Every structure is written in structure tokens, then in C-alpha cells.
Amino acid sequence: MSKRISITAFIAGLSIIAIVGFKPISHAISEMVKPAPVEQNVMGVIYQQRAAEYRALCFQAYNIAMHKIDDAAKGKKKNIKLAVITDLDETAVDNSGYAVRCFEEGHGYTDDSWNKWCNDAVADSVPGSVTFFKYAEKKGVTIFYVSNRSNAALAKTMEKMKRLGFPQVSEDHFKLKTTTSSKEERRREIAKNYKIVALLGDNLVDMDAAFDKAPENVRQHAADSLRMAWGDRYIVFPNATYGDWENALYMDYRKAHPEVKSISLDSIYAIRVRALKKY
């Protein structure tokens, strides 16, 4: 999961759902000068916290991962070591409370607020996660928590995960961000000594380098070309609130305006409205 969270969606902005539901897109864009609460992102967080469907999707993903472990264990040779690679945030650990905190405090994602959240160690577990990882350990599978959290957050992250009941919570099982956000090198290092049973994540960069900093059309093509891997080697978790899928929407704007360090709310919401498909 990429931690450059665009929780700016929580700050005053446009309610695209409300506007687009009743007015043409061109009108919606012209009315973006006067921001209103961003309902669709609030609903994404409520979905994560309240929807039974969200829980069901998480259980479904972990059930598939359990079957993968069972299948791998059956035909395993004695000298082969099995491992699962998992993302942390929104795959094993639920940080929806951080989004709520940002909303209440009136700001988007910042390194300082995110680091404080990590050090407060108040996140919850994703439904089904602790049960699955305990099952993996029981089956003799090594767990690697591959995350783009900073090493400065490792101690508090481990402390919280131990309290939640996660197994194999020791430094050698954590591969955190160093000089790059890409996880490919970390995955390759693990694969040198282990047979990877499955890779788990809410963001496709958690599983395959084809999605690293890729624009929307490249991401979609890669997802299509890997169609047989989903639910097999790659197991995806729901996250409707942030991710590289959203960042990809802004790539053309960033290329056209390299001088802009931070995209304005008006521009963000204009891009979002234009991204909607009309049928």
C-alpha cells in the first residue's frame, strides 16, 4: 500500500457523486469553485468501517490464501521453505481511523500526522487477518510483512501487531521502505530463499512491479494480462479510499504542469469528474 494518501478528499471539496448524479459533467466542473464536503470519500471510509460486504471481501481473500497454503503444503519437498508476502496497511492492519482523524483535524495526509498515527499504535486488524496468519504459521509458512512504513515506525508497529495477535512479529520478518517505495527488490530478496505461496495487498504495486508508478492505461493493461494470477498467486484486498489507482488519475496533469508541487483541490476534483465514464 502506498502511503502517499490523498486524504485531501476529506478536506472541504466537491461532492462529485451528488453533483454528477443530477447535472452534466461540464456544469459540475464549472461549479467546483465553491467546495462542499466530499461525500464519496467519507463513504469509502464508512464502507471500510461499517459494511458487511467489506468484511466479507476480506474473509474471502484470506480464505483463498488459506487454500493456497494447503495446496502448497501438500506437494512440498522437505528442503523447500514456503512463505507468504503481505502488505501491512489495509491488508493486515486497518488504518481507517487515521482517515477519520485527518477529517476531524481538517487536513489531508502529512508525514507528521501519519508518523504520529503509527506511533500512537491504535490501528485495528483487517477482518480475518490474524486468523489467517496464525494458520500460516501453524502450517510452517514464513510470513514477511513488506510495507512502505518507515523504519522509525517499526517498534510501535510491532508492539501493536503483537497486541492484536499477529504471529512472527520480529524484525527479521519486516521489510520496510528504505530508498525506494517499489517493493520489487524486497520481494526478489525473499524469493531467493523461499517459495512464495501468495502475495497479499490492497494496492497492485504490493504484488507486481508492472504497476510501479504506472499510468492508468498501463495499470489496466497489466491487470488484464495478469488475469489468471488474481485469486491465485496475487490476492487483492478492498480499499476504496486511496491508492495508486487514484494517483494514476493525476499523472497527465503532473506531466503537463511539472512546476506544480501540490495539485489544488479544484484541479483534483476537475480531474476526478472528467475521469467518470458516461454510459
TrEMBL record:
UniProt KW Lipoprotein keyword: yes
UniProt keywords, alphabetically: Lipoprotein, Signal
Listed InterPro entries: Acid_phosphat_B-like, HAD-like_sf, HAD_sf, Lipo_e_P4
Annotated Gene Ontology cellular component terms: cell outer membrane
Family annotation (NCBIfam families): lipo_e_P4 (TIGR01533)
Protein name, UniProt field: 5'-nucleotidase, lipoprotein e(P4) family
Species whose genome carries this gene: Flavipsychrobacter stenotrophus
